[in-house]
Write a structure and sequence with these properties.
- The structure is a single chain.
- By secondary structure, the protein is α/β, with parallel strands linked by helices.
- The protein has one domain: Ribonuclease Z/Hydroxyacylglutathione hydrolase-like (Metallo-beta-lactamase, Chain A), CATH 3.60.15.10.
- The chain is 26% helix and 27% strand.
- The protein has 9 helices and 15 strands.
- An 8-stranded mixed beta sheet has the order 6-5-4-3-2-1-14-15. The chain has a 7-stranded mixed beta sheet with strand order 7-8-9-10-11-12-13, with helices on one face.
- Strand 1 and strand 2 form a beta hairpin.
- The longest helix is centred in the C-terminal third of the chain and has 14 residues.
- Bound molecules: zinc ion (2 copies).
- One zinc ion binds next to loops.
Length: 280
Amino acid sequence: MSLQFCSFASSSAGNCYFIQSSGGTSILVDAGVPLRRLERNLRSIGVDPRQLQGIFLTHAHRDHVASYLIKKPFATRYDVPTYASTGTWRELLARGCGELNHDLCHRLEPGQSVQVGGLRVYAHAKSHDAAGAVCFEIKGRKERLAVVTDLGCLADSLLTALQGCTYYIFEANHDVIMEQQSARPWVLKQRVLSAHGHLSNEQAAAALAILAADAKGIWLAHISEECNCPDLACRVVEAALQHAGLRVPVMTLPARDPSPIYGNKDQGQVVPLQLWDLAD
Ligand SMILES: [Zn+2]
Ligand SMILES: [Zn+2]
């Protein structure tokens, strides 16, 4: 066992992913759920918020940083270090970030990595309409997890960097036809469908067919509640994997609720765990 993880929310209503190493290092990728809910979510899996060793912010859109846009942010309340790019820090401050302890604010630029306890976290640049937006690759003792949401396209450099991860939390945001035919304002549709917006099911499928040859599991994330449905996203990705000769389990993360805890517990088997288990 090397990594265990779950999501507390995964959609434009909120994003927050919990990751723990076999040695007990715990981090969050994004903190886009309200403070009280985040506290409850952590306690429900037996984690004291003070145990967190880092919060890694992908970008400063509200659905990823909601718990910072209050007078006393979660990170300040529980003395948790925050890692983000300069661009993300700037946008976060401009959006009305609450009080921060500056000793606990760290810059992690695209292309850089940092070791936090038993985890090494790499920041990779991505194409999204937010300054300094990144996705994170998290490496435990043996396994690598990529958290890839909020991007309009995948540059070759990103595909190369994310090749061969053990697990992928990967955006399959919308079905293109559902998006085009939705009642959303034209400007929003244009944004979502652009190279700085979000990945469609087909884009996710094409990328995962290249990336996931050695993966033990894929969790589709940030699925639009209005312009997609989890079954459709799964079908499109599974078909592409099958076409590429890959047999990787594909799951979806709930838009607003916590997922089960996932991880490689025994001999390479991916099993959802309902109870927190630190046995190594
Ligand atoms: Zn988002
Ligand atoms: Zn975003």
